[in-house]
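The instructor's notes for this session suggest beginning with a concrete chain rather than abstract definitions. Hand out the sequence below and ask the class to guess, before any prediction is shown, which regions might be ordered.
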Amino acid sequence: MPHATASWLVDNTSLSFEQIAEFCGLHILEVQAIADDTAATKLTGRDPVRAHELTQDEIDKGQADPNYVLKMLKGPEQVRRTKGPRYTPVSKRQDKPDGIAWILRNHPEVSDGAIGKLIGTTRTTIAAIRDRSHWNIANIVPKDPVTLGLCSQRELDALVVKAAKAAGIEAPTDTRLEGDREALLEQLRAEREAASHVGEEGTEEVRVEHTAETLFKH
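After discussion, reveal the predicted structure:
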């Protein structure tokens, strides 16, 4: 529950956004959005100290030194994936073609096999989108797979860097803090609003907070 943990750290510590993002495995914009409460709703914070993932001493070290990297005491057991395409929730499967199209347009150096593992699709589908023979090509709009929730920013960055290195080209600079800023924030708002609706049904706790005026400019 990285977003709930980040929410607690934002509310209860003076750690920098970079430290919280690094510890929770989130993008800096996600932490900024949580801090500024852009969606007007917030998941109940999850205390990593009570969860025995972080000590107060470790938090104190981080607050004293903004360059200090927090060390987790323990992490949840990682689910080891078996061979085959990545699993994607049914609700997001319709977004896969848009994410594939975005990668093909912005990172042609990434191989079909790598795209398939990242998004959880087949080479046949990727090829159909590339040569525009896909059955739904008229409705496919390239969209960042991160904002679609198909993968994390770290996974995408690692994939692009690896592909660029293999192709002998310079890895592109992350410009998500600029051009894709609004797109990511809109996605975050939608996800958090959806979470608030789920909470009303009793399956996830949420609490309503005040709406922040603007996103902190990093």
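Then share the key points. Residues 75-83, 199-218 have pLDDT under 50 and may be disordered. The longest helix spans residues 181-200.
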